Amino acid sequence: MLRRPTSPSASNSSSSSSTVAAMDAKSASRDAALPSGFQDDTDAATAEATYKLPPPEAPETIRTRSWVIASFWIVAIFLGLPLWHATTTIYRAPLPMQEMQNWSEGKLCKTEFPLLVEVEAPSLPEAESLLKTVQHALDDANDFAAHKPHHLRLRLAAKEAKAAPEDPKAEKGENVACLLRLLPDSRNGFNHTVHSSSRTVDIHYPPPSSSSQSSISAGLAKFVAEILEVLFWQEQELIEHLLLPQTSNPGSLNALSSPTADEARDKKTPPARPRALTADINRRMSRVVKYSPSYHLTFSLFTATSLPASWDIESAISQYLTPLLSALSPISNFTISTQVQYYASISSSVTPTFDEQLNAWTLKKEDLSSFINSAEWPLASISNDPNLNFILYIPHPSMTPLVIPSASRSDSFLLPQWGGVTILNLDHNPASHLSHATLKPAMETFATHLLALLGAPPHPASLPIRLDSLTRQRSAEVLVSASSTLGSLQRLVNALPSISIPATVSTSVRDSIRHLSLACEELRKGSFVKALEMGRVAQEEAEKAFFERTMVAQVYFPDEHKLAVYLPLLGPVSVPLVLGIFREVKRVLAERKASRAAS
Amino acid sequence: MDRRCILVIAAGVLLRLVLFTAFPSLPTTLAQRVEVSTPVTSYKRLQEGVYLYTHGVSPYDGGVFHQAPLLLSLFSILPSSAIVTNILYVLADLFSAISLVKIASSGVATATPQHISPRKGNSWPPWATAAAFLFNPFSIATCIARPTIVFTNCIVLHAIAAAVQGRRAPAFVSLAMASYLSLYPILLFPSLLLLTYDCSRANPKPSIQAFSAVTTVLFSTVLIIYFKLSHLLTGSWEFVASTYGVHLLLPDLTPNVGLWWYFFIEMFDSFRAFFLCLFQLHLLIYVPGICLRLRKQPLFALITLVGISSIFKSYPAVGDTGLYLSLLALYNHIFPTMRYTFFLTAAILYATFLGPAFYYLWVYAGSGNANFFYAITLVWSIVNALIVADALYAVLRDEHETERPELIGKDVVQI
C-alpha cells in the first residue's frame, strides 16, 4: 500500500491512457497555475514534438477508480431507484367502479314513488269494489306507460282516520299522499274541491238512485281515477323529466358525456311525448334555483322617493311567510334579511310609457329583465347560501300607477333563479309607514314566487300536496345529481390513469353510495323526507369526491411533462455517471483484447 | 502552542468582543440576515424556543423552533443577559481556533502514513491557520449573529482535533453531538473514521473492520444517549420531527444562500417528495466516492465533504462556508497548484457584496424580485463548488506528483 515518493514507477513506454501529462520544457519554469489554454501556439507545437507516453496506471489506481464509480452507482441504484419508485408512484385508492357506473346508469335503484291514497266513503256501501275498479284503471294506465315512476295505491281509510279526517299526517305518518272523501251531493253532479291547507280532496257525486247503482259506481270510479291523474300528472311529468339521464336540465354535473347516456335517453324518451309539455317543464325548471339545504331570503323595499320611510316587514313575514317557511323546513332552511333603500331609481334603460287606455304607466315586457338596477341597488349577498331576492318597489308618485300590461293587469313578476319583484302603487300622498295590511298582497305574491323559485308545482291547490310533491321532486333531483356525479367521477378516473385518488375520495364515494341506497330504500318505503335527507348527504359526498383538490391538480399533468421535470436536473447529473461506467467498460474490453493478443 | 498562536487567538477574541460592545445593534442586525441565520440555526428562534420552554409550553408546537433540545436546556440554564451569551459564542470561536491550531500542529494535512506531500515545506505555521479562521469575515459575521451553527462548527473542529491525535472516544462523542445538533455532520462519519484509524497510535493496530465496528457502536450509543436525554428534557419525541424533519423535508422556505428554497417554491407538489429524496441523496452520493478516492488523505476527504454539504445542504449559511474555508487553510501548501485562485477570490467577493444588495432590492426596495437573490445564491454556490473542485484537483495533483516527481511544475492537459 505504501508508496514512497522516492521510488516512482517511471517507465515511459506503455500504451493506453486517457490523460497525458504534456511536458513542455519552456513552460516548466512558469507558474503551474496557468491554465492550459494560455499556452501560445509555438509552445504547443514544440509540446507536440516532445510527447512522451505516460506510464501505465498502477493496478491500485484502477481498482480505486472502479470502486469509486461503483460506489456512485450503488447509491443511485440501491437508494435512488427505490426512493424514486416510492415517491412518484401515484396512489390510487380502490373505488367501487362497477357500482358507480351502475348508479350512474340507474341500474341499482328503480326510482319509484309509491303514493298511498286513502279513500273515505262513509255513505257508499260497496266502496271496496269501487276502489278495486279505480286501482285497476290506474294500474292499467301505469302498465301502458311502464316508465312512470309513480305508483298510486288506494286504501280504504281506517275507522280512526274517519274520526279525525283533518289530521291524517299525525296518525299515518307521511305515507298518505292524499285523502279522498267521497261525499254524495245531489245538486251539482260530479265535481271535486281541493282543500288548500290539508291533503283532503272532497269528491262530490250525485247520490245513487236505486235503479242505476252499478252505473253510478262505474261513473264514479272513472271520475276518481281522472281526479287522481289530474292531481299528480304535473309532478309525474316533472319527475319523469328529471329521471331521464342527463337531459338539458341546468346545473347538470355531467362533465364527460358518455354515448351510453345519450343512447339510454333516446331509448327511454317516449316518441309520443308532446313537445309543448317538455318545453313547459323546461321553462319551469329553468326558473328553479339549484337545490341547497338552506337559502337566504332578502326582502328589500325600494322606494323612488323618501316615502314610505318604514315598513312592518317583521310582523308581515312572521304572519304571512313563516308558516310557509316552517312547512318547507323538511326540504330547506331559510334565513331572512331585510333592507330599505330610499330614492332608488330603476335602471336608466327602462322608461315606463303612459298608456291612455289603462290610465297607467306601463312597463314593456322586454324591460322587465333589466328592471333591477344592479349597479345602484345593494343586492349582493353576504351569505354563503344561495340568495333569493324579493323586492317591493314603490314608484315615484308622478309615475303611479305603474303596471305591467299583460292579460291580467299585474304588478309583479318573477326573475328566474333570482327572485321576485312586486310593484306597489300607493296613492299620491303616501303614508310614511307601510302597514302590515298594505303588505299583505305583496307578501302573498312573494310566497307564490318563493314556491315557484323552489320548484313546487303550481297545481293542485292544496299546499301540503304541493310540498309533498316538491319533496319528491327534490329527492329525485339529488338522487340523479349524486348518481351522475359518481358516474362522471368513474369516467374521469378511467379516462385519466395518471391522476391520484386519495383515500378521502374513496371514503366519500363509499359514503355517497351507501346513502344513495338508503335513500332509494326510503323512497320505496314512501318516506320521502328521509329519502331527501339521505339523498342530500349522498350528493354532498359525491361532489366532495369529484372536486377533491389534489385530484384536480393532477388532471393537468400528463406524462409527457414528466420529461421536463426529470431531465433538467437528472440529465446533467447522470452524464458523468454514465460516461464513467462507459469508460470503465471500454478499458476492460481493451485490456481483454490486449491480453488475448498477448497470449 | 507558541506565543504567536496565543497572540493571534487573543486578537481574534478581542476583535469579537470589541464588535459586540462597540456596535450593540450589530448582533440583532446580523441575526436577521438570511445569509447568516437560517430557520434551523437562528438565534431569534432559539430565544423564542427558550422562552416557550421555560414557560412550560412545548417549544416545538408552533412550528417556529427547529433546534435540538439540549441547546434549549443549555440556554435556559444560562442567565439571560446578552453579555453572557456573547461571551459563550466568543468562547466557542476560541475553542474552534484552538482546535484548528491542534490540527495544524499535528501536520496531518501534509503527511499521513500513506502520503507525504512534496510541498510539505511550504505549509503555513499553525497560527496562520488560526488566523484564517479568526479573521475570516464569514466566521466573524457568524459569531456576531449568534446562530447555533457556531456550536456545531466548534464541535466538528473539536472532533477533527481529537481524531488527528488518534483519540477515538472524544472524536466520535463530539461528532455524535454535532450530528445531533444539525444532522449533516453525520456525513463526515466515514472520513472521520478513516482519519482516526490512520492517526491512532494503538499498538498493534486493530484491523480496519474491527476498528470501524467498534466506532460505529460507540457513535450510535452516544447518539442514542443524546436522544434519550432530549426525550427526558422535553417529555416527548416531537422534537425529532421538528428538528431533523425540518432538515430533511424543508417545510420552511425562507430564502437562504442555498439552492433548495427557490427550487422547492417552484416545485410541483406531486414531485416534491421525489426531489427532496433526490437532493438528500445527492449529498450522500459523494461520501463513499470521496472517501475511497482520498483514502490516502482522509482529512482532506473530510474537508471536501464539509465543503460539499455547505453547498448542498437544506439550510446552508455563510457560517458553513466559513468553516470550510478555515479548514481549507490547513491545505495551504497546495494553493499554488490551484488553477483559478484569482477568479474564485474575485467571484466570492462579488457574490458576498451583491447578495445583500440584491436581497435588499427584492425584499425592501421592491424593485427586484426573488430571481435577483436566487441568481446571486447560484453564483455563490457555483463559486463554492468550484473552490471544492479546484482544491480537489490541487490535492490530487499533489498526490500524483508524489508518484511522478518529475512532473512537478508541468501543466496538465486532458487529451
UniProtKB/TrEMBL annotation, chain A:
<feature type="compositionally biased region" description="Low complexity">
    <location>
        <begin position="7"/>
        <end position="18"/>
    </location>
</feature>
<keyword id="KW-0256">Endoplasmic reticulum</keyword>
<dbReference type="GO" id="GO:0006506">
    <property type="term" value="P:GPI anchor biosynthetic process"/>
</dbReference>
<keyword id="KW-1133">Transmembrane helix</keyword>
<protein>
    <recommendedName>
        <fullName>GPI transamidase component PIG-S</fullName>
    </recommendedName>
</protein>
<feature type="transmembrane region" description="Helical">
    <location>
        <begin position="67"/>
        <end position="86"/>
    </location>
</feature>
<feature type="region of interest" description="Disordered">
    <location>
        <begin position="1"/>
        <end position="40"/>
    </location>
</feature>
<keyword id="KW-0472">Membrane</keyword>
<feature type="compositionally biased region" description="Polar residues">
    <location>
        <begin position="250"/>
        <end position="260"/>
    </location>
</feature>
<keyword id="KW-0325">Glycoprotein</keyword>
<dbReference type="InterPro" id="IPR019540">
    <property type="entry name" value="PtdIno-glycan_biosynth_class_S"/>
</dbReference>
<keyword id="KW-0812">Transmembrane</keyword>
<comment type="similarity">
    <text>Belongs to the PIGS family.</text>
</comment>
<keyword id="KW-0337">GPI-anchor biosynthesis</keyword>
<dbReference type="Pfam" id="PF10510">
    <property type="entry name" value="PIG-S"/>
</dbReference>
<dbReference type="GO" id="GO:0016255">
    <property type="term" value="P:attachment of GPI anchor to protein"/>
</dbReference>
<feature type="region of interest" description="Disordered">
    <location>
        <begin position="250"/>
        <end position="274"/>
    </location>
</feature>
<comment type="pathway">
    <text>Glycolipid biosynthesis; glycosylphosphatidylinositol-anchor biosynthesis.</text>
</comment>
<dbReference type="GO" id="GO:0042765">
    <property type="term" value="C:GPI-anchor transamidase complex"/>
</dbReference>
From TrEMBL, chain B:
<feature type="transmembrane region" description="Helical">
    <location>
        <begin position="259"/>
        <end position="287"/>
    </location>
</feature>
<feature type="transmembrane region" description="Helical">
    <location>
        <begin position="338"/>
        <end position="360"/>
    </location>
</feature>
<dbReference type="GO" id="GO:0042765">
    <property type="term" value="C:GPI-anchor transamidase complex"/>
</dbReference>
<feature type="transmembrane region" description="Helical">
    <location>
        <begin position="207"/>
        <end position="227"/>
    </location>
</feature>
<dbReference type="Pfam" id="PF06728">
    <property type="entry name" value="PIG-U"/>
</dbReference>
<comment type="pathway">
    <text>Glycolipid biosynthesis; glycosylphosphatidylinositol-anchor biosynthesis.</text>
</comment>
<keyword id="KW-0812">Transmembrane</keyword>
<dbReference type="GO" id="GO:0016255">
    <property type="term" value="P:attachment of GPI anchor to protein"/>
</dbReference>
<keyword id="KW-0472">Membrane</keyword>
<feature type="transmembrane region" description="Helical">
    <location>
        <begin position="372"/>
        <end position="396"/>
    </location>
</feature>
<dbReference type="GO" id="GO:0006506">
    <property type="term" value="P:GPI anchor biosynthetic process"/>
</dbReference>
<keyword id="KW-1133">Transmembrane helix</keyword>
<protein>
    <recommendedName>
        <fullName>PIG-U-domain-containing protein</fullName>
    </recommendedName>
</protein>
<feature type="transmembrane region" description="Helical">
    <location>
        <begin position="70"/>
        <end position="92"/>
    </location>
</feature>
<comment type="similarity">
    <text>Belongs to the PIGU family.</text>
</comment>
<feature type="transmembrane region" description="Helical">
    <location>
        <begin position="171"/>
        <end position="195"/>
    </location>
</feature>
<keyword id="KW-0337">GPI-anchor biosynthesis</keyword>
<feature type="transmembrane region" description="Helical">
    <location>
        <begin position="299"/>
        <end position="318"/>
    </location>
</feature>
<dbReference type="InterPro" id="IPR009600">
    <property type="entry name" value="PIG-U"/>
</dbReference>
<keyword id="KW-0256">Endoplasmic reticulum</keyword>
